[in-house]
Amino acid sequence: MSDLEFSLPLTTRASESLQVFLLGAVDFESVLRLQEKLRDEVLQRRDRLGGLFVCEHPPIVTIGREGSQSHLRRDASEFNKLGIEVRWLNRGGGAWMQCPGQIAVYPIVPLQRLGLRLAEYRQRLELAVLDVCRELHVSAHRIDEEPGIFCSLGQLATVGVAVRSWVTTHGLTLNVSPDLSLLRTTRPNSRGLRPTSLEAVRQRLTAIPKVRESLIRNLTERLGYEQSHLYTGIPGLKRTKRRVFAGQMDEHS
Question: Per DSSP, which regions of 4-77 are E strands?
Answer without folding.
Answer: 18-25, 50-56, 60-63
